[in-house]
Write a structure and sequence with these properties.
Strand content: 15-25%
Number of helices: 10
Mean pLDDT: 79
Helix content: 40-55%
Distance between the termini: 78 Å
Low-confidence stretches: 1-36, 159-165
Shape: elongated
Radius of gyration: 26 Å
Order of helices and strands: HHEHEHEHEHEHEEEEHHHEE
Largest sheet: 5 strands, parallel
């Protein structure tokens, strides 16, 4: 219609208002030109119970996420490579490859957040998942609204270390050396491989040598002030850190527990 209007040659007396009308229409069209929107965050839902996976996905779609589903362990790893999700909601009880193996394989090529779903009451399963690189867990049965809230919470976490921008030199506490730029940890000359969450917890403690941080302090810094869930998840990650870091040259562990208060790195 607009093109047809532009082809009409109006009488001379009307050329003035015609020109104004054309400019107004062009300006109106320019005002409605869509701006580049931020793409939605991507979530991969993995569960062999297809109705449950579809229900979770539908809630996430309503919350504004770009969502895909996988129903087996093998499919989950393949889809994670293709889709490059920001978050993987991962059930542990999967056919072909169980959730723990899926978590381990995804960690070889992605630093996406992994939120485990498990019907198992065993602490060993949760500890194993967190050790392999999962960021959080929810035990079935669960509230889907809570799950969506957890997804939002992990995405508010920074993708890189929590180290303040001005900290660009290594943090050294005894034999422990943390490089916030290279995202590397060494004990003496030995490099220690840590998950993103373990690294962030260790940095939070090393930034304040000798100071005791409570579970709540660490959850607030590493997870988010709006994080919902059991604060004892900190204990699991601290346990993993202790096993990986080992002891210093004097045979002491690097992370002390101050009973009834929290944790610290270094002596006060």
């Amino acid at each position: 219609m607009f093109e047809d209007l532009m082809k009409i040659s109006p009488p001379d007396a009307e050329r003035g208002w015609y020109s104004l009308l054309a400019r107004a229409m062009l300006g109106s069209m320019a005002d409605r030109t869509p701006t580049t929107a931020t793409p939605p965050r991507r979530v991969l839902v993995v569960d062999d119970e297809q109705p449950l996976a579809q229900m979770v996905a539908s809630y996430l779609i309503r919350a504004g996420f770009d969502t895909r589903q996988a129903y087996t362990g093998t499919q989950a790893v393949d889809e994670a490579r293709r889709f490059s999700p920001d978050v993987v909601v991962l059930d542990l009880g999967l056919p072909e490859l169980d959730g723990l193996e899926v978590c381990r394989r995804i960690r070889t090529f992605s630093d996406c957040y992994i939120l485990m779903l498990t019907a198992r009451g065993s602490e060993d399963d949760k500890i194993s998942g967190l050790t392999l690189g999962a960021d959080d867990y929810i035990t079935k049965p669960f509230s889907i609204r809570e799950l969506v809230t957890r997804v939002h919470a992990v995405l508010r976490r920074p993708r890189t270390s929590i180290t303040p921008p001005q900290v660009t030199t290594p943090l050294i506490v005894g034999d422990l050396i943390l490089d916030p730029v290279a995202h590397r940890v060494r004990v003496g000359e030995t490099t220690v491989e840590l998950t993103r969450t373990e690294f962030e917890l260790l940095v939070a403690l090393a930034l304040r040598p000798g100071q005791v941080l409570t579970r709540h302090d660490l959850v607030t810094e590493v997870w988010d002030t709006t994080w919902v869930g059991d604060e004892r998840i900190v204990d699991v990650h601290i346990g993993n850190l202790r096993r990986k870091l080992g002891t210093d040259t004097r045979g002491r562990g690097f992370i002390d527990t101050v009973r009834g208060v929290g944790y610290r790195v270094g002596q006060p």
